[in-house]
UniProtKB/TrEMBL annotation:
Coiled coil: none annotated. SUPFAM superfamilies: lambda repressor-like DNA-binding domains. Residues 15-70 form the HTH cro/C1-type domain. This is Plasmid maintenance system antidote protein, XRE family. GO terms for molecular function: DNA binding. Pfam families: HTH_3. Keywords: DNA-binding.
């Protein structure tokens, strides 16, 4: 979970301050190149809209970055904001769940995989 200190910067602000302004690009010119409306770009820059996967692909191409860069910025921003709203103190860890580890893809380990597989098999044949 992200720490609750300073909030992450919205990717729209990063787009404006680190890409558009240094390159001297107007919102209209940038929007035209990205194949979106100026209104859509304005909503993103003014934090009224987030980065979608499609937008991440467009931005990555236009600014020679990766879509993951843009998606990770949005994910970090969204997760931090959700963490301020969601009450987690009353949620308990399910019995039988082992502390998971994270790799490139998230994995969840269960103590008794055979029991889980057997239950899934029983459910699918019901």
């Amino acid at each position: 979970m992200l720490k609750r200190g300073m909030p992450p910067i919205h990717p729209g602000q990063i787009l404006k301050e680190m890409y558009l302004e240094p390159l001297g690009l107007s919102q209209g010119d940038a929007a035209a190149n990205l194949g979106i409306t100026r209104k859509t770009l304005s909503q993103l820059i003014n934090e009224h809209q987030g980065i979608s996967a499609e937008m991440a692909l467009r931005l990555a191409k236009a600014f020679n970055t990766t879509p993951e860069l843009w998606m990770n910025m949005q994910w970090t921003f969204d997760l931090w904001n959700a963490g301020k709203k969601v009450q987690l103190t009353k949620i308990k860890v399910f019995r039988g769940v082992v502390k998971s580890h994270t790799t490139k893809t998230t994995t969840i380990e269960v103590k008794s995989a055979k029991k889980v597989a057997k239950k899934k098999s029983t459910i699918s044949h019901a």
